[in-house]
């Protein structure tokens, strides 16, 4: 009888040996926790399309941040929902804007224990819901860049460690880098939403942030789902303009893009496990169709295997609490 000489199962039979040989790991410090903070509310508001997530008050935001930090998730991404909106998105850059107040409060509460990342866009702040100022019904790229510069310096002055422009305007990273440097914030990093696709997976976020466009869509500035080379080009352009980290968004339908960007660039690569991906897991788990813990483990390991150095995910706090138990899941 002939027996196999190659026996990969030798490396699987012992739990300690499996851990020792594991190629891809996830730790709480690899995760970024996106959080919504809303002006002029007295209590946290549940987000129906994202079970377990809320629009925070300033106080509840601070408590949630503290809970995440205690679990080892120190990186927080802030989205603001203002009390009022206008055509230019003024609430995005005013000194007492909701994100500016949140940044100051979190910095006072946690000092350098929290890495504060400020999403920079206009869609939550404009009455038309687009990511820039309009010329008729078209987003005016270059006028929008001037506003992005104001937002970036306002966020940095309020305490942001990292500015994360998500509007997909041409030249946004160069404009923001120039503004930050001239304002004395050359130490602040830029996390560029380099390859942000026009995706149906953003649906729940638009409820969470109140950012659905009142007309048209965002395909004129966000990327087409069929393109990979364009994503690599976008990432390279952003790096040339001064980006310190580049992001691919969404994650699950674009794992090949994460891999391509990671192989083509030398800066850290982030991937955004977005609201629709979160909602699908939550809905399936609520119906008893999947084991949520095991599915999350596989999803996040898959994103890491694809090449992401860090993952933005609404599951961050729950996953950080559960990581010590992952070895019991096989």
CA-based shape? globular
Radius of gyration: 20 Å
Secondary structure class reads alpha/beta
The beta-strand count equals 12
Mean pLDDT: 96
User: Which architecture name does CATH use?
Assistant: Alpha-Beta Barrel
Q: Low-confidence parts lasting 5 or more residues at pLDDT below 50? A: none
* Whole-number tally of structural domains: 1
State the helicity in percent bands. 25-40%
How far is the N terminus from the C terminus? 32 Å
CATH top level is: Alpha Beta
Percent of residues in beta strands: 15-25%
Q: Within the largest sheet, what's the order of strands?
A: 1-4-5-8-9-10-11-12
> What does the oligomeric state look like here?
single chain
Major beta sheet summary: 8 strands, parallel, barrel
Order of helices and strands: HEEEHEHEEEHEHEHHEHEHHEH
CATH superfamily: Aldolase class I
Q: Using the coordinates shown, work out and report the CATH topology.
A: TIM Barrel
Q: Given the structure, what is the number of helices?
A: 11
């Amino acid at each position: 009888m002939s027996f196999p000489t190659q026996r990969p199962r030798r490396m699987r039979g012992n739990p300690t040996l499996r851990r020792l040989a594991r190629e891809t790991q996830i730790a709480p410090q690899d995760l970024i926790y996106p959080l919504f903070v809303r002006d002029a509310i007295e209590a946290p508001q549940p987000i129906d399309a994202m079970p377990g997530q809320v629009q925070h008050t300033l106080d509840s935001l601070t408590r949630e941040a503290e809970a995440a930090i205690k679990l080892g998730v120190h990186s927080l991404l802030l989205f603001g929902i203002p009390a009022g909106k206008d055509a230019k998105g003024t609430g995005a850059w005013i000194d007492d804007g909701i994100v500016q107040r949140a940044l100051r409060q979190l910095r006072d509460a946690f000092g350098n224990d929290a890495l504060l990342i400020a999403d920079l866009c206009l869609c939550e702040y404009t009455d038309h819901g687009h990511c820039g100022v309009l010329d008729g019904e078209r987003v005016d790229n270059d006028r929008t860049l001037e506003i992005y510069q104001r937002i970036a310096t306002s966020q940095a002055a309020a305490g942001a460690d990292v500015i994360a422009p998500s509007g997909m305007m041409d030249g946004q990273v160069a404009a923001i880098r120039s503004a930050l440097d001239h304002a004395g914030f050359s130490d602040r990093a830029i996390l560029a939403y380099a390859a942000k696709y026009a995706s149906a997976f953003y649906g729940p976020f638009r409820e969470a942030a109140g950012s659905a466009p009142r007309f048209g869509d965002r395909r004129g500035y966000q990327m087409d789902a069929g393109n990979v080379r364009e994503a690599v080009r976008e990432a390279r352009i952003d790096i040339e303009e001064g980006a310190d980290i580049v992001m691919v968004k969404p994650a699950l339908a674009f794992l090949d893009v994460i891999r391509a960007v990671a192989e083509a660039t030398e800066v850290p690569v982030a991937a955004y496990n977005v609201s629709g991906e979160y909602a699908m897991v939550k809905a399936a788990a609520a119906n008893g169709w999947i084991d949520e813990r095991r599915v999350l483990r596989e999803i996040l390991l898959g994103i890491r295997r694809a090449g992401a150095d860090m993952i933005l995910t609404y599951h961050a706090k729950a996953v950080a609490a559960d990581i010590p138990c992952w070895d019991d899941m096989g």
